[in-house]
C-alpha cells in the first residue's frame, strides 16, 4: 500500500470514529436532541429561518427525513412555521424561544467538550485543523 493510500485509509477511519463520537455525544448533551436535530436547529438560527426543502437540500437529506425531524421539533416546541412574507403559500421554519434556549445550552456543552478534548493543542495546530476540515467539507 502506498503512502497516499495509507493516509486515505487513516482519514476514513478517523472520520468514521469522529462521526460515531459526535452521534454518541449528542444524546449526552441533551437527551431529547439528536445530532440531526441539533444541526437543523443550528442552521435555522444561522439563517434566521428557512424552508424545510432548503434544509433537505443543504444537508443532502431526503425530504421525508427532514419532515420527520421538523415535526418532532415542532411537537417539542422548538420550531414553528410562519408564512413567508414574500409568498404566503410558503412556510418558513423559525426557532422558538425554547428552541433558542436549548440550542444555546447544547452549543455551550459542545464547546466545553471540544475545549477539553483540544486543551493541549497549540493554537497553530487548532487553526490548521480547522482550515483542513473546512477545506475538506467545501
What's the tally of helices?
6
Q: Judging from the principal axes of the Cα atoms, what is the shape? A: globular
Approximate helicity band: over 70%
For the biggest β-sheet, the strand order reads 1-2
| Assembly category | single chain
- Spatial extent as radius of gyration: 18 Å
**Strand segment count:** 2
Overall pLDDT score = 89
What percentage of the residues does DSSP assign to strands (E)?
5-15%
Q: Which H/E pattern describes the elements? A: HHHHEEHH
Structural class: mainly alpha
Describe this structure in words.
The chain is mainly alpha-helical and 138 residues long. The chain has six helices and two strands. A two-stranded antiparallel ribbon has the order 1-2. α2 packs across α5 and α3 packs across α4. It starts with a helix and ends with a helix. The mean pLDDT is 89.
Summarize, please.
This protein has 6 helices and 2 strands. It has 138 residues and is mainly alpha-helical. The relative contact order is 0.10.
Keywords:
two-stranded antiparallel sheet, 138 residues, mainly alpha, 6 helices, 2 strands
Layout: helices, strands, pairs:
Layout lengths: L2 H27 L5 H13 L4 H8 L3 H13 L3 E6 L2 E9 L1 H21 L5 H15 L1
Antiparallel strand pairs: 1-2
